[in-house]
């Protein structure tokens, strides 16, 4: 497996970030010596970091500090934590400092015939996307912005329920750290204590009847700063508030460890292998819910999911199946 640190807009600032990541006070002189630049050049780099929403503290005569420090992504730490099977399945791991969208970058690579499995992680996304075109908030060095690319034979029909199976993999990864109260919301959200903790976005390229590439995007909230959290337009949960102290590199490795074997065997096993696990974590099981698609609305009681991943809605004794797409699900008050 290859591992790559890709160069992107913040890459020239990475050395000073790594020095400040410990949360301790560093004088301008010591930073300049470590970086091989003048104190004036250090000050200019500090100014640029503030433009990315990073909280910096400057004390005259003492230097600079990043309160609380930063938990930066590191390819070596992630690779060392993968289990043997995941390590064998992962062909390349790419880390970005900043990117428009990890999904968009990976879709471009998959179009070039880069094969599978490729994983991209980014410290920050400037144009991260969620389901139904929503913006995904991902400030620098917080949370997880992960995309994994995989090629499947057999066309799109063999991928039924895949987003739900990915949800099961995320739940299992979080269970490795004993994160409490994890639930799944159809078709592709992970909830914690009644609020959204993570989301899944699947995008496909290629021949949808034969060989196609799938990019699985995962966004997970962890350590969101107040200035960024205010932009989120729905109830949300933060991993660091629920279970503080989980290192981002270990979390990324756990997600890959659980997800890659799912992708490797999915053509053979399908969603049927994960259906029971999904239903055990169903946030809305047995509850009255509302489905909406455009101007259409359906109300009923959530009755689980089919072996193909369709939501089953009990509408006055009639069981109706609804597939993903642009359908939204809400619990009735």
From TrEMBL:
PROSITE patterns assigned to the protein according to its UniProt record, in alphabetical order: BPL_LPL_CATALYTIC
Domain BPL/LPL catalytic: 88-267
Keyword tags: ATP-binding, Biotin, DNA-binding, Ligase, Nucleotide-binding, Repressor, Transcription, Transcription regulation
Enzyme Commission number(s) from the entry: 6.3.4.15
Keyword flag Cytoplasm: no
Keyword tRNA processing: no
Source superkingdom: Bacteria
Residues where biotin binds: 101-103, 125, 129-131, 196
Enzyme class: ligase
Pfam families attached to this UniProt entry: BPL_C, BPL_LplA_LipB, HTH_11
Catalyzed reactions per annotation: biotin + L-lysyl-[protein] + ATP = N(6)-biotinyl-L-lysyl-[protein] + AMP + diphosphate + H(+)
GO molecular function, one term: biotin--[biotin carboxyl-carrier protein] ligase activity
Family: Belongs to the biotin--protein ligase family.
Protein purpose: Acts both as a biotin--[acetyl-CoA-carboxylase] ligase and a biotin-operon repressor. In the presence of ATP, BirA activates biotin to form the BirA-biotinyl-5'-adenylate (BirA-bio-5'-AMP or holoBirA) complex. HoloBirA can either transfer the biotinyl moiety to the biotin carboxyl carrier protein (BCCP) subunit of acetyl-CoA carboxylase, or bind to the biotin operator site and inhibit transcription of the operon.
Protein known as: Bifunctional ligase/repressor BirA
Classification of source organism: Bacteria, Pseudomonadati, Pseudomonadota, Gammaproteobacteria, Cellvibrionales
Gene that this sequence comes from: birA
């Amino acid at each position: 497996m290859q591992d790559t640190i890709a160069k992107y807009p913040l890459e020239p600032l990475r050395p000073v970030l790594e020095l400040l990541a410990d949360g301790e006070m560093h004088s301008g002189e010591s930073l300049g010596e470590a970086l091989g630049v003048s104190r004036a050049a250090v000050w200019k780099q500090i100014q640029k970091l503030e433009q990315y929403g990073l909280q910096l503290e400057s004390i005259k005569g003492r230097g600079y500090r990043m309160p609380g420090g930063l938990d930066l992504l590191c390819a070596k730490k992630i690779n060392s934590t993968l289990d043997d099977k995941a390590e064998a399945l992962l062909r390349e791991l790419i880390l970005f400092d900043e990117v428009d969208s990890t999904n968009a970058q990976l879709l471009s690579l998959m179009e070039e015939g880069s094969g599978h499995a490729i994983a991209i992680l980014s410290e920050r996304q400037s144009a991260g996307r969620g389901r139904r075109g929503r913006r995904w908030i991902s400030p620098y060095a917080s949370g997880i912005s992960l995309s994994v690319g995989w090629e499947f034979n057999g066309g799109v029909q063999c991928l039924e329920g895949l987003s739900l199976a990915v949800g099961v993999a995320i739940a299992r990864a979080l269970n490795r750290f004993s994160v409490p109260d994890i639930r799944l919301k159809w078709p592709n959200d992970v909830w914690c204590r009644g609020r959204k903790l993570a989301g899944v976005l699947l995008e496909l390229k290629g021949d949808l009847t034969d060989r196609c590439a799938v990019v699985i995007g995962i966004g997970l909230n962890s350590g969101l700063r107040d200035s960024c959290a205010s932009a989120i337009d729905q109830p949300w949960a933060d991993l660091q508030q629920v279970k503080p102290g989980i290192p981002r590199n270990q979390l990324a490795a756990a997600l890959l460890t659980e997800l890659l074997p799912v992708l490797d065997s999915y053509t053979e096993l399908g969603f049927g292998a994960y259906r029971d696990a999904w239903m055990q974590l169903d946030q809305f099981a047995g509850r009255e819910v509302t489905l909406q698609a455009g101007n259409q609305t359906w109300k009923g009681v959530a009755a689980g999911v089919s072996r193909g991943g369709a939501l089953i809605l009990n509408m006055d004794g009639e069981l109706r199946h609804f597939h993903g797409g642009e359908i939204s699900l809400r619990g009735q008050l």
